[in-house]
Design a protein that fits this description.
Cofactor: [4Fe-4S] cluster; S-adenosyl-L-methionine; Mg(2+)
Number of helices: 8
Number of domains: 1
Largest sheet: 11 strands, mixed
Helix content: 10-25%
CATH class: Alpha Beta
Bound molecules: iron/sulfur cluster
CATH architecture: Alpha-Beta Barrel
Number of strands: 14
Keywords: 4Fe-4S, Iron, Iron-sulfur, Lyase, Magnesium, Metal-binding, Queuosine biosynthesis, S-adenosyl-L-methionine
Enzyme class: lyase
Protein name: 7-carboxy-7-deazaguanine synthase
Structural class: alpha/beta
Subunit structure: Homodimer.
Distance between the termini: 33 Å
Length: about 300
């Protein structure tokens, strides 16, 4: 159920200016708005700190050359827009909304759009929530859609809504439901209410979500990203490329060799070449692009 416009909030991990490290706009100076909350569990995730909503944590606002400013994490779209303007070192920049999984917060994204003036708004998403994507697509200038191999995903979790107690400004204690109920009066409390759309669990769920997302972006400004990790047969990626070829054949495909993390390895060079050739055989516009922001050691 959509949130009341005057009470839309989302948990903000950080707002900062940097260079885009992936996809069609690599190298562009942008502002990044990272929202907390992700039900997915990619084995090579480099931002596990954004999985939990954690309304008790601070939002990190980083202005160039200044000490990090820490603010209340739960923010309205208006507050987020003020932070975006504050961290821009110069002229207004494109804003990339990232996560976590930003499609947990479709109402927030829609409400943010008119507050960004003529800045472009880009979305970086895992492509697991097509209903949420459909809700925001008309306000997004560019979608960067990650396509995931089911074998790269651990079991997802579901994010629960959190009723915030305005008197203390803290999350209601889940062990004291009477307090949460009391605070649930819309005049009394804000609610962190992520989308109720469930995350894919099975291979079939993933295929369905992926295909619906590709159908949505086929005529939109968008790119697809596929992370290729070591130890996988190159043919395993075919199911992703075949769906792109059938549903969004004009969408550029960026293949990102996995940056080693935890037990995940970078791919062998020959395997990477084979993956690229398999995608090219389907007529796709394929480019190999390492995760530049991680090579440079920037966010
Ligand atoms: S979707 Fe993004 S934030 Fe969520 S687990 Fe995957 S890489 Fe991490």
């Amino acid at each position: 159920m959509p949130q009341t416009p005057s009470r839309i909030v989302a948990p903000v991990v950080e707002v900062f200016a940097s260079f885009q490290g992936e996809g069609s706009f690599v190298g562009e100076a942008q502002v990044f708005l990272r929202l907390a909350g992700c039900p997915l569990r990619c084995l090579w995730c480099d931002t596990p700190g954004s999985w939990a909503m954690r309304p008790d944590k601070a939002a990190r606002i980083q202005r160039d050359g200044e000490p990090v400013q820490r603010e209340d994490r739960v923010a309205s779209p208006f507050q987020a827009a003020l932070w975006i303007a504050a961290v821009e070192p110069g002229e207004p920049r494109t804003v990339s909304i990232t996560g976590g999984e930003p499609l947990m917060w479709p109402d927030f994204i829609r409400a943010l759009r008119p507050m960004l003036g003529n800045r472009r708004m880009h979305l970086e998403t895992a492509g697991a929530h097509p209903e949420s994507l459909a809700r925001v697509l008309d306000v997004i200038d560019h979608v960067s859609l990650d396509l995931k191999l089911p074998s790269d995903m651990a079991e997802p979790v579901e994010l629960e809504r959190v009723v915030l107690t305005p008197r203390e400004g803290e999350a209601a204690d889940a062990d004291r439901p009477e307090e949460a109920e009391e605070a649930e009066d819309p005049e009394e409390a804000d609610v962190l209410a992520p989308t109720t759309e469930t995350a894919p669990r099975t291979r079939e769920d993933w295929a369905m979500a992926r295909r619906r997302c590709l159908d949505l972006i086929q005529d939109h400004d968008a790119c697809v990203k596929v992370v290729v990790s070591g130890g996988k047969p190159p043919r395993e990626y075919d199911e992703l490329f075949e769906d792109v070829a059938r549903r969004a054949p004009n969408c550029p495909v960026f293949i990102a060799p996995a940056t080693p993390i935890g037990g995940v390895r970078a791919p062998e060079f020959q395997d990477l070449v084979t993956v690229v050739e398999n995608a090219r055989d389907l007529g796709l516009d394929v480019r190999v692009l390492p995760q530049v922001h991680r090579m440079l050691g920037i966010a």
